[in-house]
Amino acid sequence: MSIEVNVPTLGESITEATIGEWLKQPGEAVGQDEPIVSLETDKVSVEVMAPVAGVLGEQLAAVGETVTIGAVIATIAEGDAPAASAAPAAKASAAEAGDDTRTLSPAVRRAVLEHGIDPSSVTGTGKDGRLTKEDVLAAAKAKESWEDAPSPSPAPPPAPSPSTAPASGGGRREERVRMTRMRQTIAKRLKEAQDNAAMLTTFNDCDMSAVIEAREKYKELFAKKHGIKLGFMSFFAKAACLALKDVPAVNAYIEGEEIVYHDYVDLSVAVSAPAGLVVPVVRDCDAKGFAEIELAIADLGSRAREGTLTLDNMAGGTFTISNGGVFGSMLSTPIINPPQSAVLGLHRIEDRPVAVDGEVVIRPMMYLALSYDHRLIDGREAVTALKIIKEAIEDPTRILIDL
Questions:
Q1: Which residues have a Cβ under 8 Å from the Cβ of 183 and sit 6 or more positions away?
Q2: Was domain 101-149 assigned CATH 4.10.320.10?
Q3: Which CATH number does the domain 182-400 belong to among 3.20.20.105, 3.90.650.10, 3.90.1150.10, 3.30.559.10?
Q4: Catalytic amino acids?
Q5: What's the pTM?
Q6: Do domains 1-97 and 182-400 have the same CATH topology?
């Protein structure tokens, strides 16, 4: 009996998706609830699971093709016998192709293809022994070290990438890669933010001495009790919650001719993922403690790197923090994340001479940037909000006593 595979419902506002990658080929055995195709939406990559066990039949949509919700994209010949007979051939084909029969996340599959790693040769450190992107990168690094080592016989030339081609003049190359649906959406939304908002950025600098001292003093006890490291983001998240409470416009947005205010903080945290920048949300950040925030951010960051964020992880958000400092950025003007009205940009910490009580001293300083929609937020409000954040970081006791 042939069973149809349909594009599942992906969220209220999502009506279509793009075929990102077929994980199973016609004639291969599939198990029930095993991923057979990856779909790219405006926000996340979603794997479609097999509704029954059997053998994959016809693929009715090609990679890169746009499909609507409910559309039939494949068929499966249901039954255990065909699946069992097809399994050896499928496994042999996978072995010749350097593939693996284990379920890989989209991020891991991209890393495997990019670095030419046989996933069956790598021990997974993820949940239930699954491969992580870090496992693949470590294997690729080890492979490079081995290939770079002196050899008594010449190493074979690397296989050419299917997406690159040598230029006619010799060794120069160029690569043409189709933008993913997510990258297209990121580009569109960022441009819309610039076009639709009266965007402006205000700056301040912040002495990180107190936070660094607090982390150093309590990091071991914190990790032992909560099972997570005490990072900078929880301090800035709580400091931002103070500012948003005192300056509600920074936590609001414009909808038509109305201003929508929130009595809660759903904090969007910008994370670099394989497919581009994503902003998963820490819900009710104002009601969470430091450990809860650190655990939530760590979980969302891990999901982003593995390509397993869901639409629920991404939906909503009332204010964003983007930390360019992890990449070495000294200063930036971050772009707001519509429909939000403000975003806080963090940057690298560096020792700089500053004047304290009439004397020049060296302190670990960070530049802070608050970009905001001037249609809703006045300059006074933006400067005040950023000043509250600065003061809370320079004196973390303010966070505890709500000052």
A1: 275, 276
A2: yes
A3: 3.30.559.10
A4: 374, 378
A5: 0.68
A6: no
